[in-house]
Amino acid sequence: MQYLHHNHNMTAAAQAIQERINTLQNEHRDKMVEVRSSFSKRRGEVYKNRTKLIAENGGPKSFWALICRAHPEIAGSFGPYDEEIVDKLENVQVEYTDDKLKLILTFGKNEYFSDTQLWATDTYDAGDVETSGVHWKPGKGPLSEEEEAEPPTRLITKQASGSGTKRGREDRGPSIFEVFETVLPHPDDEETPDEVDEDDYEAMVNQWDEENDDRKEVLSFFVEDCYENPLRVLTEAISGGGGDDEEADE
Questions:
Q1: Which of 90, 128, 224, 249 could form a Cys-Cys staple with 123, CB 3.0–4.6 A?
Q2: Which pTM value belongs to this model?
Q3: Any idea where the domains of the chain sit in the sequence?
Q4: How many CB atoms lie within 10 A of CB 17?
Q5: CA–CA distance, 182 with 53 (Å, rounded to integer)
Q6: pLDDT single digits (tens) 216-237
């Protein structure tokens, strides 16, 4: 009985300590939200002033196209027609909230997709990404699975005159802007067909995770490099890559 009484007292003391820990964790979370909210508001004001400055000195249309071309990973991921799309890029904007950020690319009229804006949101803690989707115009953009299987001579597009012209795939194929296409649900969030075995399901999950990681990496290039520090991107491009390469050569 004495042992049980002692054990009960120890359990009660441990529970009291755990409640204190929980209270501190809740306070920490609330403070982090408060700090993040305040920082996001202040950061937004600074970026708003920068946007105004850019607009007064040549306009964001040419500025952001220049920055994207200067970024080695973004430019290096351009598809065969992405240069033409970037020519129509008019503005890059990031909205920061308490729990997520939203990247917005604004475009002028172009011949590849009908959207005037492509956007993606990234939740800070969960890492969930939501996207606007891309409405590619007929005969434009990435190849469908059916088109991938066809020989190049089968790809036919209609010109403005209405006549069909056979074309190769030099103006079709992958695009960096595919990261804004609609994100399919994670396999865990969908009912798995009975005929899918464990290995196939694991492969589906791995593919989804890899594509999501690639998507988040490309989005980070736009947000953390191009938007948050465009002058560094430009400076490193002019200097040939920055100081890291020079130190490595030494």
A1: 128
A2: 0.72
A3: 58-241
A4: 10
A5: 34
A6: 999 999 999 999 999 899 999 9
